[in-house]
């Protein structure tokens, strides 16, 4: 059973996420977006514990919460923040993942770069996400992604996945996949569960499982037991 | 008054001042006088120093070139030679200093080699440096010359004492010729090339900086606003069925956001290139700039024709940046902007009665402006005593519209 290793029911990973209340810290320098995100998440019943405007404040806030034994479930961070407006969000995220492996980190950015995704995913794809800011427009999907990352899942932007797929040197092997299988591979790399993929493609869970095992067979990967390990396997495959 | 111009040009200033009583503009030495006056005394001391200096330079040049060339089959040879040539430039500078101080030769420093690019480009530049090679040549020929000078001076001071000043003058003249021939910057061309190269660098840098600024403005402004808008509409879409009133309020908010985003995009587009500048020229464009300044601005543009587009653009952005500075920092109650043409130059003057104290290195973009104007052969002058008023004068070359 794919999900048993984590002691979770399929429902928790997929559809039922909305009922789960997660605790969020938001780091975003634009007040407009910070408040928007806060509203979006609280509106769906989640708790925004803190909202900060730069990476330093983010690290400080998380450290304070950690000392009070009240770590958030997930941190949503902008890539570009003061003072240098470059990639401090990514660097802070990498540091948080190292210092507090239990926290999920979702990085938002105006542009997605496959390089940043690789840095974020270095070592583990547990509880990590990297999405275009535009994705907040699809409120339900975005909140799902936040919850997924909070629960230890993965959320990679389709654009990152497309970059990875396009850049991969295994084009000849990828060409052997059917169009549907490529679609499933993309959704898998984004970090979606089988049931989420099934819902997206409007097919049955069983059909997805069949596609997945076909993909793993064609790519020569051994079927792994957890979603996030599966993402890592796919990414490692594409990246090599 | 702080005047900024391209550095190498400004360096001409002190060098062209009269040195040691010679009339400016006269390269030839003054007529001989019959006494052992101060000038002769200096020339004598120069000639006496010739031998130790010549010896030192000769040894340096021989060692550098032979060791560098000898080792050039190995990895370290050429970098060593390059380092030696860099040192030769230093030697040249010392010799020029000596000639300036004791012989009164007016001689300019050659422009420095451009930096950057790592070790290999550095070595290559150094090896091709004509100034250093000429200095090496100078060092070679100096030793035999210095020995001869020493011999002549020694014998003459013993047996032909009355002739010493004449001989000293003659030998010093030969020295002057040698210094001028081998140690002066090759010519105007060399200087001009270096100047243009630095100018081109500034243009490229400022273009890159402009692109970064535009990207930043987009990222922080319209893009962020559109994301917020998309978020608001997404929420509204979700609410549409369960809570139509809340959804209506959200759509209303989003409507406001989109109008703000439009305004921001408009401002940004104007910041990249204002349409009115292309259509109507400086007068109209500057008036529109003036209306957005926090202080009242009187604009007077006195031009009978329009300059080349590039010049017009630079003039516009110069005034734009200056007025932004006035809005942000000056606290002025009155500003005047004057633009006129004087011969082959376009002149811009912006005067405000604010608190003054603006400085080129004050981080208000003044240095960037000065640099940009320098890159197109322009001039930038800032006069801003603490307490005001501040007068900024910018000068651009006039080019006809092609």
Share of β-strand residues of chain A: 5-15%
Q: Which pair of chains forms the biggest interface, and how many residues does each contribute?
A: A-B, 19 and 16 residues
Number of strands of chain A: 6
User: What is the averaged pLDDT score of chain A?
Assistant: 84
Structural class of chain B: alpha+beta
Q: Which consecutive residue ranges of chain A, at least 5 long each, have pLDDT under 50?
A: 1-18
The main sheet of chain A comes to: 6 strands, parallel
How many structural domains in the coordinates of chain B?
3
End-to-end Cα distance of chain A: 28 Å
Q: So what's the CATH class of the largest domain in chain A?
A: Alpha Beta
- Helix tally of chain B? 13
Describe the global form of chain B: elongated
Content of β-strand of chain B? 5-15%
Q: How far is it from the N-terminal to the C-terminal residue of chain B, by CA?
A: 35 Å
User: Which second-level CATH architecture of the largest domain in chain A applies?
Assistant: 3-Layer(aba) Sandwich
- Spell out the helices and strands of chain A N to C: HEHEHEHEHEHEHHHHHH
Q: How large, in whole angstroms, is the Cα Rg of chain B?
A: 32 Å
CATH topology tier name of the largest domain in chain A: Rossmann fold
Structure characterization notes:
The complex is a heterodimer of chains A (240) and B (402). Chain A is an alpha/beta fold and 240 residues long. Chain A has 12 helices and 6 strands. Chain A has a 6-stranded parallel β-sheet with strand order 2-1-3-4-5-6, sandwiched between helices. In chain A, helix 9 packs across helix 11, helix 9 crosses helix 12 and helix 10 packs across helix 11. The longest helix of chain A has 15 residues. Chain A is globular. The N terminus of chain A is likely disordered. Chain B has 3 domains: 152 residues, no CATH class; 74 residues, Single alpha-helices involved in coiled-coils or other helix-helix interfaces, CATH 1.20.5; 123 residues, Heat Shock Protein 90 (2-Layer Sandwich). The two termini of chain B are 35 Å apart. The N terminus of chain B is likely disordered. The chains are: A alpha/beta (240), B alpha+beta (402). At the A-B interface, helix 2 and helix 6 of A face helix 8 of B.
């Amino acid at each position: 059973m794919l999900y048993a290793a984590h002691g979770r029911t399929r429902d928790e990973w997929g559809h039922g996420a909305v009922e789960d209340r997660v605790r969020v810290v938001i780091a975003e320098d634009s007040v407009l977006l910070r408040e928007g995100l806060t509203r979006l998440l609280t509106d769906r019943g989640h708790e925004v514990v803190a909202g900060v405007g730069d990476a330093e404040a983010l690290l400080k806030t998380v450290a304070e919460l950690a000392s009070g034994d009240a770590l958030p479930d997930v941190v949503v961070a902008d890539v570009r923040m003061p003072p240098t407006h470059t990639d401090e969000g990514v660097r802070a995220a990498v540091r948080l993942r190292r210092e507090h492996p239990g926290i999920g980190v979702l990085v938002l950015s105006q542009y997605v770069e496959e390089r940043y995704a690789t840095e974020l995913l270095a070592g583990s794809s547990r509880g990590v996400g990297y999405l275009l800011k535009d994705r907040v427009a699809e409120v339900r999907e975005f909140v799902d992604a936040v919850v997924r990352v909070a629960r230890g899942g993965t959320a990679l932007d389709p654009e990152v996945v497309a970059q990875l797929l396009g850049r991969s040197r295994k084009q000849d092997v990828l060409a052997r996949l059917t169009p549907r299988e490529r679609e499933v591979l993309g959704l898998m790399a984004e970090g979606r569960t089988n049931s989420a993929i099934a819902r997206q493609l409007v097919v049955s869970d069983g059909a997805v499982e069949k596609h997945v095992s076909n993909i793993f067979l064609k790519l020569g990967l051994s079927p792994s037991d957890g979603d996030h390990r599966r993402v890592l396997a796919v990414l490692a495959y594409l990246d090599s | 008054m702080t005047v900024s111009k391209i550095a190498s040009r400004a360096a001409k200033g002190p060098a062209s001042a009269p040195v040691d009583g010679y009339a400016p503009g006269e390269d030839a030495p003054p007529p001989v006088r019959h006494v052992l006056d101060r000038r002769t005394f200096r020339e004598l001391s120069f000639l006496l120093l010739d031998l130790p200096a010549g010896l030192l330079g000769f040894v340096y040049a021989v060692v550098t070139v032979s060791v560098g060339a000898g080792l050039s089959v190995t990895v370290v040879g050429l970098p060593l030679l390059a380092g030696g040539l860099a040192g030769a430039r230093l030697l040249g500078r010392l010799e020029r200093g000596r000639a300036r101080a004791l012989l009164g030769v007016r001689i300019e420093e050659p422009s420095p080699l451009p930096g950057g690019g790592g070790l290999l480009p550095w070595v290559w530049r150094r090896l091709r440096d004509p100034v250093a090679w000429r200095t090496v040549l100078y060092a070679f020929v100096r030793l035999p010359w210095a020995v001869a000078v020493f011999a002549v001076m020694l014998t003459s001071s013993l047996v032909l004492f009355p002739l010493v000043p004449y001989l000293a003058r003659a030998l010093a003249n030969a020295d002057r010729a040698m210094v001028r021939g081998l140690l002066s910057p090759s010519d105007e061309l060399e200087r001009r090339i270096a100047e243009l190269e630095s100018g081109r660098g500034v243009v490229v840098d400022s273009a890159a900086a402009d692109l970064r600024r535009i990207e930043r403005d987009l990222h922080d402004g319209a893009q962020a606003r559109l994301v917020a808008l998309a978020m608001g509409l997404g929420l509204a879409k979700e609410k549409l069925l369960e809570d139509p009133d809340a959804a209506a309020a959200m759509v209303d908010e989003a409507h406001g956001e989109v109008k703000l985003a439009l305004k921001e995009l408009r401002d940004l587009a104007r910041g990249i290139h204002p349409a009115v500048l292309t259509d109507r020229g400086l007068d109209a464009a500057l008036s529109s700039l003036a209306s957005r300044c926090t202080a009242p601005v009187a604009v007077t543009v006195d031009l009978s024709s329009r300059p080349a587009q590039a010049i017009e653009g630079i003039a516009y952005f110069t005034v734009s940046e200056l007025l932004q500075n006035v809005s942000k920092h000056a606290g002025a109650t009155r500003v005047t902007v004057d633009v006129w043409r004087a011969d082959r130059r376009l002149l811009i003057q912006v005067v405000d009665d604010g608190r003054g104290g603006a400085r080129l290195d004050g981080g208000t973009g003044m240095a960037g402006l000065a640099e940009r104007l320098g890159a197109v052969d322009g001039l930038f002058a800032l006069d801003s005593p603490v307490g005001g008023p501040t007068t900024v004068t910018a000068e651009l070359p006039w080019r006809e519209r092609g």
